[in-house]
Amino acid sequence: MIRWLIYLLALFVMSVIAIFITPLLPLFARPRLGPIDNNHGQAVEPRLPHWLSWFDTPDNSLLGDASWKACHDGGYGSQVGWLYRNSLYGFKWGPIAAPMSEPRIITGDPTINRNNGHYGVLRIRMAGYWQWKCVKPIGRTGRCWMINLGWMLDDADQKRALFMFSPRLVKLR
Questions:
Q1: pLDDT exceeds 90 at position 39
Q2: Would you list the domain boundaries of the chain?
Q3: Which of 43, 56, 113, 137 has the most crowded CB, counting CB atoms within 10 A?
């Protein structure tokens, strides 16, 4: 828990920095081969230089994933919007991520999700890392609380678990 709180403080400091520098980041972008569409392909598209990788999305270019590209023109404003939407993804996947190597202890229902209307609580522990996820509907409003804290340990196919601090009020799908 102490490690998570320290990382949360680091994320807060970096988030304040990101608020101010994100509009400048696309000015540093250059076409480069890399992953696109949430790591489902490769293409030469605009990406930040390696020294700005904490602000980049490691699984997409600045043009975004397929659903973002369908609604945005790929210009400067679109790239800034993508970086705000996915703020500090490289930081969360990099230095403050958890290595996925140990067996996980799962308590609760791993299928909870706002997309399938399956509500509940999930807890996962793994070698000093943890995840607590709660999906709870709010009456008949068509909305729910979706809270995800710790590291995203529920996807065992990843090599690293994304650092999570995600309390959200969202629409049910």
A1: no
A2: 2-93, 98-171
A3: 56
